[in-house]
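Q: Convert this sequence to structure tokens.
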Amino acid sequence: MRKAMKFLHTAGAVGITGAVAAHLVLLTALPELTTLAEAAALRAGILAVATWLLLPSLVLVLVSGLLAIAAHPQFGNAGWVWVKVALGLAIFEATLVSVQRPATRNLEYTLDAMAGTISPEELAAMLHSEWGPLWVILAICIANIVLGIWRPRLTRRRAEARTAPAAESTGQAWWARREVR
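A:
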């Protein structure tokens, strides 16, 4: 079960990262478009990547990650796991707010411009920069992957590690301890 969860989680992480990268690549082609029909086709492609690759990969990562935590009690005590959970939820929210909804809205605006409802100048003014949120999501994805590989200790020190050595608790002076060594 552990290997299956790890495989699904890794496959989902690759899907998210690839979908965000594909979205960024498609955005680079926007300034070169000459017609609204080309822009609408590209916007439809961006929406398809977000709908059929990004969201399913995101759900796969979240579900497999939470199932892995439930199946392996040692993950519940690892600080890096809870940092990954927090970052995963941030990616989920950012994806819905900053990727999926704008992709749908921008396609609708482009189709409205094709229909003549709005002018191309109004369309250009309506389309806000999509680059920033995508780069942030990509950075969080990479941070999550690094956390999963590196697995730093993000736990509190244990009480016995913080207590004083036996020599200090008996009241010996520091020079007496030094001579014993």
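Residues 57 and 66 are 14 Å apart (CA to CA).
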